[in-house]
Design a protein that fits this description.
Two copies of one chain form a homodimer. With about 220 residues, chain A is mostly helical. Chain A folds into two domains: about 60 residues, Arc Repressor Mutant, subunit A; about 140 residues, GntR ligand-binding domain-like (Four Helix Bundle (Hemerythrin (Met), subunit A)), CATH 1.20.120.530. In chain A, about 75% of the residues lie in helices and about 5% in strands. Chain A is built from ten helices and three strands. Chain A has a three-stranded antiparallel β-sheet with strand order 1-3-2. In chain A, helix 8 runs antiparallel to helix 9. The interface between A and B is medium-sized, with 33 and 32 residues. Chain A binds a DNA duplex (30 and 30 nucleotides) through helix 3.
DNA sequence: GTCAACCATATTGTATACAAGAATTAGATT
DNA sequence: AATCTAATTCTTGTATACAATATGGTTGAC
């Protein structure tokens, strides 16, 4: 069962939510969306469930599907968990990472450096995603890697937005290099701390995140 | 949308999978189960999706829904993540826990002690669940608490089974007391380490887990 | 005798029809 | 005039009918 029509619809809906077409609290009309996508309500409802499980929609019985964007508190909580998950990945990866993966990390970082000097946020984020993804994989724990990637995807729009702040790309860049050095030296705790601090929302990052929220809300 | 008929069916199916009625790799027949539950295929398929998202089923397009029990490797991976999540909860809870919650932890522990002397595994596990749940809550991060509880539930049947091994309940008990002491003293790292070791599968626990798997498989 | 291809059957995915519940509006009463 | 109630309408939840695909068996050919 579960072919992929529901999946493609789920992806499109996800994009529509991320790009702001539907705002927090909006109710999604089944029949309207169904004819808009040219399908019946059945696969659309399946897509709703996908999105509900990943937290983007709230399904209220007999009421409908409502867009559910995380508020400031929940967002900070999610970033705290993300920081800890990345820290664990780093701690494990420091002991288990392969030479080939290290080379890939260095390559991703040099691509990042190019993007920084060009001021290309999109290119930077794309390479940044590869960087983190490699570390998830190299934790040697595919369940952990999956969970980390899932949360990363959920926070992606916010992380991307953060990079637009002045000087933030450069800071992120130098943190990346610090992370690679810790991994190269197999220093587990150093890698964990570096990743935790890289992701955690604290200090100036907190205010920047709050500013981002105000703009979208 | 999403009333709770699909949810009750999902719970019942979950129980059927846990109690061994359906084994790993079994295909669940939509029409048979639908008439068995006295509903149509529609809500049943919704239940399938719930279970698939929580990892108990694998939905293969045009093929059907197959029971998917984690193998030894995945199980170890999940326990590793669980240990780290609990460690984070403990680290945060050590700084944020309330006096009332500490009292509840002590009470849960004394109920545990009663169960240990009575050799009552079910009673012990019930109180054990409360113990861990309190720590999740007291992390002060409800997103983290939710994620921890989700994984805890997924691993529940295995954790329960582990307690049946000789001496294991007593060991778990003394680890609980050590955890409470660390939390009382607000020793964040000590609490984290105690919880990680309490949950992690290593040493003799590894062989016990493998033995459990052989029995169910 | 074995392998391959085709047909029949069964099962999943999708659409539509039907039923039940919630919300809104209009009407009546205070 | 305002509020409460009732009825209508709209929307969700469920069932069933239909279509498309995969699977298994049978038959034919090499």
């Amino acid at each position: 069962m579960e072919k992929r029509r529901a999946d493609t619809i789920a992806e499109q809906l996800e994009a529509l939510i991320f790009n702001g077409t539907y705002a927090d609290g909006d109710r999604l009309d089944e029949v309207r969306l169904a004819e808009q996508f040219g399908v019946s309500r059945t696969p659309l409802r399946e897509a709703f469930q996908r999105l509900a499980l990943s937290g983007l929609l709230e399904l209220i019985p007999r009421r409908g599907a409502f867009v559910r964007q995380p508020g400031p508190v929940e967002l900070l909580e999610m970033f705290e968990v993300m920081a800890e998950l990345e820290a664990v990945c780093g701690r494990l990866a420091a002991l288990r990472i392969s030479e080939a993966a290290l080379a890939e990390l260095r390559e991703a970082n040099s691509s990042c450096q190019t993007a920084v000097t060009a001021g290309d946020v999109e290119a930077y984020y794309s390479e940044n995603e590869r960087f983190h993804s490699i570390i998830y994989q190299q934790s040697g724990n595919s369940f952990l890697a999956q969970e980390a990637a899932k949360l990363h995807k959920r926070l992606q729009p916010f992380r991307r937005q953060q990079l637009r702040f002045r000087g933030r790309m450069g800071q992120s860049m130098s943190e990346h290099e610090q992370i690679v050095r810790a991994l190269e030296a197999s220093k587990a705790e150093a890698a964990a701390d570096a990743l935790r601090n890289h992701v955690a929302v604290q200090g100036e990052k907190f205010h920047q995140l709050m500013a981002t929220l105000k703009n979208t809300a």
